[in-house]
Amino acid sequence: MHELSVCQSIISQVLEVAKQNKAKSVFKISLQIGPLSGVEASLLEAAFPIACAGTIAENAKLETELLPIKVRCQICGNENEAKINHLLCSACNSWQTELISGDEMLLRSIELDK
Ligand SMILES: [Zn+2]
Fold it and tell me: Which range of residues forms the domain containing residue 106?
């Protein structure tokens, strides 16, 4: 399962931050997920308890937020939000757009118990 390995890499980042801050446990982990990141939020949430079992993040609450897809037009320079299979410029209807957000997955915040 792809989401489990994604989860494990998030948890290892979280545990690293927790260690640096000498935390006793992790309260909450907030993630931002782009629709084009290839990560399914519901699968990630399902994999989360497995990935953090036995760590100080075991009882942490996982929050996921879906990021918008944004494109920049290479013809007119306009930036707008776009739909997953419809990456059009809203100003000039050009298909020649580049993705500027929506394919990333970010660790947004971590709440620690010190
Ligand atoms: Zn345009």
Answer: 2-68+102-113
